[in-house]
Amino acid sequence: MSWITNFLTSSIGRKLLMSLTGLFLILFLIVHLAGNFQLLKNDGGQAFNEYTVFMTTSPLIKVISYGNYLFILLHAVLGITIWLKNRKTKGKTSAVASKNEDVTWASKNMALLGILIFAFLMLHMGDFWLKMKLNQTNMIDYGTGPIKDLYENVYNSYSQWWIVIAYLVGLTALSYHLWHGFASAFQTLGLNHRKYTPIIQFVGKAFAILVPLGFAIIPLYFKLFIVD
Amino acid sequence: MKLTLKVWRQKNNKAAGQFETYNVEANEHMSFLEMMDVLNEQLIEEKKEPVSFEHDCREGICGTCNMVINGQAHGPQKGTTTCQLHMRHFKEGDTITVEPWRATAFPVIKDLVVDRSSFDRIIQAGGFISVNTGQAVDGNAIPIEKDIALKAFDAATCIGCGACVSACPNGSAMLFTSAKVSHLGLLPQGEVEHSRRVLNMVAQMDKEGFGMCSNVGACSAECPKEISLENIARMNREYFKAVLTSDLK
Amino acid sequence: MKLESKIPKGALDTKWNDYKSNVALVAPNNKRKIDVIIVGTGLAGAAAAATLGELGYNVKAFTFHDSPRRAHSIAAQGGINAAKNYQNDGDSIHRLFYDTIKGGDYRSREANVHRLAEVSTQIIDQCVAQGVPFAREYGGLLENRSFGGVQVSRTFYARGQTGQQLLIGAYQALSRQISLGTVTMYNRHEMVDLVVVDGKARGIIARNLLTGKLERFSAHCVVLGTGGYGNVFYLSTNAMSCNVSAAWRSVKKGALMANPCFTQIHPTCIPQSGEYQSKLTLMSESLRNDGRVWVPKSQEDAQAIQKGKKTALDIPDSERDYFLERRYPAFGNLVPRDVASRAAKVECDKGLGVSPTGLAVFLDFSSAIERYGKSEAHSKGMNATKEQIIAMGTKIVEAKYGNLFEMYEKISGENPYVYPMKIYPAVHYTMGGLWVDYNLETNISGLFAMGEANFSDHGANRLGASALMQGLADGYFVLPYTIGSFLSKEISTPTISTNLPEFEQAEKACQERIECLINVKGNQSVESFHRRLGKIMWDYCGMSRTAEGLKKGRQMIRELRAEFYKDVYVPGQSNDYNPELEKAYRVADFLEMGELMMLDALERNESCGGHFREEYQTPEGEAMRDDENYCFVSAWEWDDQNPILHKEDLIFENVELKTRSYK
After folding, report:
1. ipTM of the predicted structure?
2. Residue A94, in any domain of the structure
């Protein structure tokens, strides 16, 4: 089995793990956003609450969500170890910052952005997931039996400016992270070709803007149009 | 033109280094290294120790010169080595910061001189085609598609200067290593031992203490030969292929 | 001293084959017990080290660079010749042999040159197998181009970076042997002396450039692949650290220096722009395929250009003197290097030069741009305007020479697509070198010399694209055979001890020499002495020479040398990393080598190849060779007062000696 450990601890092997977990998380973002859009339906939260029942009870989704937690942790822990190791291998840095315009700010600050995103995730999970798990949620009945009214939790959270702003900060970090991360994941997999790399880069940048924007619309919409 | 230079001075690998400030009178036709020559003549005249820096061909091909100029490997001009950078790209009164390559795998020997022998060891790990003198078949026995030969050539133009490592915020040697893997792997002559080559070279690269690539692209952006990131992608996939399909451990 | 060239008997085209079949071999079990020192790891050195390693010898290889990949072979641009006849244009081994002999103005050895032509084809095969990415046709086969002085296309190339690709091929082969343990590589080690034991070269003293420590290394024989001595001129196209020291130290131990006055001045280099200039940059000879060389007809125009009041574009065609086309209508701009260089000098001496220093001529691509543009317009069926024609023509010129134009623009700051290039001749290569016999062995038994470090193949002038050929021929295919002639007699010689008194004495002498330089503690930098030496060399032993000037030059060098040892300032310590000290001992050797070059040039009362004596020219200013009296190799034994000349007569059995004419 030594080849597996050799592989996964080699610099390219670790990159591969970063890339694959990153790509999985990108997929997750799409699913998550699609679900969140239920919040924008003007039905007092019924669609959203019913959707959360499905998401919390389907065994398949459960497996995937635990995988998702694992991948987030793996991506984060691996990212941090790589960052720490790279700081050591870089040693002293140049006294003047390079002004090279071909290098994006995001690409050089992935760890910082990652930490910001992780902090945001903690807030986010504490706000919803933890409250739900600790049964700090009211129940609501749409005629099919009582279910947790997570919509109310969302409503309560997004009525506070500081949470909305924290979300916006977190999502900005996510946007920058994706700005580099999306295309980078493909480069790591070895997918780089003058024909299709420009397409990947374009899609990556569009994704990095649109998806966090999609997420950001929801708290803003709540705060500006529903709560007030 | 009058310039202020902030030059990194470091007695040896163990000593701590610091910047020293000098004033130099240069003219716009000088190359950057000729301007450094003027500084050294000046220091020698004052019976001070000249700045040690490495240089040789001064034509941009030997890969010896290595200065981080204002934070950029080989300075501000794209696709240009330090020796081919000319002072007309600077202005009267400029302050220029000059440092050695910055990476743990390139320890400073003195002032601006660093030890790049790790690159040699990466090549020794597999950056060759195992053919003894006299064993070769006729040069035209194996046709090679023109575009493939050109791609191999583009990768082979690497001068082994180490700018990629210095430019990389992680101190990674992926561009250098992948350029060699690509050059040899693209050619039919090099394909035979390709799996062995890529596994061994990557292992050696890791062993030498280079950082891990995070696809920043600074390496390629500051490479004086503008070696493409495509090479890194190629090495990644060749590495996966070698791990998953060859019998080598 | 009788110089034995040891040329094998028999017909010219069978000599090398017969030799290979009969040369004594060393059995594999004995090879393991034999140590070989190789100094220099450029094309010749790296190739030889790799090959001898493959054969099973214990090789110790030395370079003063931080890596073998830095050697100056890397800077060769144009290409490498080989008599493959892939183009079916009538090339053959004999034709390559003949072109090289003629190009060298009949001052090289027939047998050596023929061997070079024979192995040239194997070099290409070997390099392709190593992964050298030569230029290819769409069909996937190797492409060739043409070079000066020949009528066939036999030059293999990799854009303008052929030397780089070939050196990297050799470096990789060497790296493979290093990883296999057959070659031990000593980077940043500079040979500072040769150790001779009982008349045989048995080792070297090397200075570890990082620590400054002198170290002893022994072997059964020593091979030098240490390049040429062009840097004696200070300004040359050589790399900054190219030097003569390894060869010169051997001369001091009794080796002979052959034909030192044969230096090649390359016509197309970027001219000097100021006193601070550290080196000159070559523009490939291939540019003369499309560039036209000219100066203004009138001195007024030339002066206006020198002062920056006019540019080349202000001079109408009728006021331009395309002097190469005028003087040599048959070959025009493609005359060989020595001829083109001298012609440019003649014009500049008349005050017609076109740079602020007055030392430059134009190399103009406007005709080529127009010609290519017109033909492109024609092939596209366009009725093009002048601007369109120029735009299309520029594109084509860019595709052919783009990287050279870019390099020119970087250095000069002028756009060569609009303003003609300014070029001037510069020292580029040295045909002379250590005297060697057919085995590449010097007169010191067990000391071999390869590549530019020896004198053997290029006579008085080297043709383009043949330096790479010779370096690799010697390293891959010649020396590994011929070294057997010596080593086969050494199989029972045990490992040489470095504790022998000869090693001790040599090390002590080196230490003293170095201390002596450090202790002068004078007031002038090493660089300033080197610059002055270069000026003397260029003025009196450069493109054209006179007996009077050479005598004066020799005297000036002797005076400069005395001043050097009185007033040089070498900062730092001897037991430390000290680049100034390295320069100092190299310049000290140049100060002696330069004198020998003056002497050799003075002694050779004829004009041939790169050696032009003003006294020996035709009324039209062409070189006049004297085959009656000077058809020999001059091989010099050094002596501080009066170096001694030994002669090896050149015998031509297969080619007829003719006057080179390019009219």
Report:
1. 0.98
2. no
